[in-house]
Amino acid sequence: MTDHSETLAHWPAPAAPGPVRATVTVPGSKSVTNRALILAALASDPGWLRRPLRSRDTLLMADALRSLGIGIEETVSSSTSVSGLPSGRGESWRVIPSTPQAPASVDVGNAGTVMRFLPPLAALAEGPVRFDGDPRSHERPLHSLIDALRTLGARIEDDGRGALPLTVHGIGSVDGGRVSVDASASSQFISALLLTGPRFNKGVEVRHTGRRLPSTPHIRMTVDMLRRAGAQVDTPDAGGEPGVWRVTPGALLGRDLVIEPDLSNAQPFLAAALVTGGTVTIPDWPRQTTQPGDALREIFTAMGGRCVLDDRGLTFTGTGRVRGIDADLSDVGELTPGIAAVAALAESESVLRGVAHLRLHETDRLAALTKEINSLGGDVTETGDGLRIRPRPLHGGVFHTYEDHRLATAGAVLGLLVEDVEIEDIATTGKTMPDFPELWHRMLAGERA
Ligand SMILES: O=C(O)C1=C[C@@H](OP(=O)(O)O)[C@@H](O)[C@H](O)C1
Ligand SMILES: C=C(OP(=O)(O)O)C(=O)O
Predict the structure, then answer these.
(1) Distance 37 CA to ligand 2 centre (A)
(2) What confidence tens digit (pLDDT) does each residue in 144-180 have?
(3) In which pathway does it act (predicted)?
């Protein structure tokens, strides 16, 4: 039985002793690792993931693929050991593809990438594949994807709510073809259909019908990774029809891929430089990337810092003065909790827009951020599609995290400048960054972490 007194213990968020000065090596990207696993599983020959992220979301994906008969061997390079390594650094995963096998049972945890990216792949198996996960996974939207898969020829049994738990009854192949999807609740519906699209008999043509489309960089990441694996993809931004993506049926190549660091998980460390007037360097920051976290260079510069991208990586420097921001974060929704924390410590008001869909993330992030920042004395109000944040002097208290890794790291940022902040369940950062507490302490000690 889980010992909740242990897992939900309060973590005293360390206050910054002064401006932070550190180099922080952040672990691999969740979004890249989980796409790479899917594409490698569907390839015609074995592939490698180097420096994959090893966290709850990626281990759930790997375990799910193994239960579908895909081989995933984990190796650690001989000069290093797993312990003491930032998640997955020094590790390689070899993926041996195979036709997905059923019956199988998949635990999605609360990973959007697992609950959305895997059902299309499972539909290629012959037999039932059951999907279930954490209680919150039952509330996260899936109906558009379920409807789309049915249109494309898959049989899916659910309890009528269009949500988890569900069973995909595959017949060994999926017709594919044209489908309309309202992806205003999550870009992951489109990514999911495109990723397995090359293996559908007719490929897939996905038409987005909703009014808004969040997280478009994540869709570009999907397209980019598909193309690098040899798929032919036509997209709206390559002169194609707006809101329509086409994937031609065909084989995927096994690749040898080094996973980029997770730029969204670099956020709390960059925020630490910004709010303390210090300097943090993130090595291996890619010169070109589809990761939404790259937008932090612009966003945190607008909030008062400056950055340099050179051979050492990204070096971000704050002045200690933080400006509020008025920004549409629709493309970079997963950055909202960290930006909200910085905004609560700023000198002027912020308005964060375009992120209504965050109500459907790990938790209702708009409600959670409002409640928790206000419980420390803040002045945050929810708007129809975001947050209005008026900075006020904050005081200590318990910062609840609702099993949301980004709530936990946002609370840690507040704790840098606000004494006696205690984060509930810091272990929830294990969803994408199990080493967070250690990396945070090492950053504050000025060590190379
Ligand atoms: O495709 C992906 O890897 C992701 C897409 C986004 O989801 P939404 O479009 O549901 O916001 C993002 O928030 C999530 O963290 C990861
Ligand atoms: C929204 C997120 O995750 P998920 O992949 O579970 O949707 C996130 O990591 O901020």
Answers:
(1) 17
(2) 999 999 999 999 999 999 999 999 999 999 999 999 9
(3) Metabolic intermediate biosynthesis; chorismate biosynthesis; chorismate from D-erythrose 4-phosphate and phosphoenolpyruvate: step 6/7
Out of 258, 290, 311, a domain closes at 258
Judge if the beta carbon of residue 264 lies within 6 A of ligand 1. no
Tell whether 449 is covered by a domain.
no
Residue 273 lies in a domain: yes
> If you measure from the C-alpha of residue 329 to the centroid of ligand 1, how many angstroms do you get, rounded to a whole number?
13
What is the residue range of 313's domain?
4-26+261-444
Distance of CA 432 to the CA centre of its chain: 7
Question: Residues 300, 274: contact at Cβ < 8 Å?
Answer: yes
pTM of the model: 0.96
CB of 432 sitting under 6 A from ligand 1: no
Q: Are residues 93 and 237 in the same domain?
A: yes
Same domain, 92 and 206: yes
In this prediction the ipTM stands at 0.99
State the Cα–Cα distance between residues 301 and 318, nearest whole angstrom.
Answer: 9
SS3 assignment, position 26 = coil
Cβ neighbours of residue 219 closer than 8 Å, sequence gap 6 or more: 187, 190, 191, 194, 213, 245
* Structure-token pair, residue 124: 């290629």
Amino acid at site 114: V
Q: Is the CB of 113 under 6 A from ligand 2?
A: yes
* Ligand closest in space to the Cα of 195: 1
Determine the pLDDT at residue 84: 47
The answer to whether the annotation marks 150 as part of a ligand binding site is no
* CATH number of the domain where residue 351 is located: 3.65.10.10
Q: Which two tokens stand for residue 221?
A: 């990441």
Q: Which phi and psi angles does 326 have, rounded to 5°? A: -115, 110
Whether 168 is covered by a domain: the verdict is yes
Active site residue 419: no
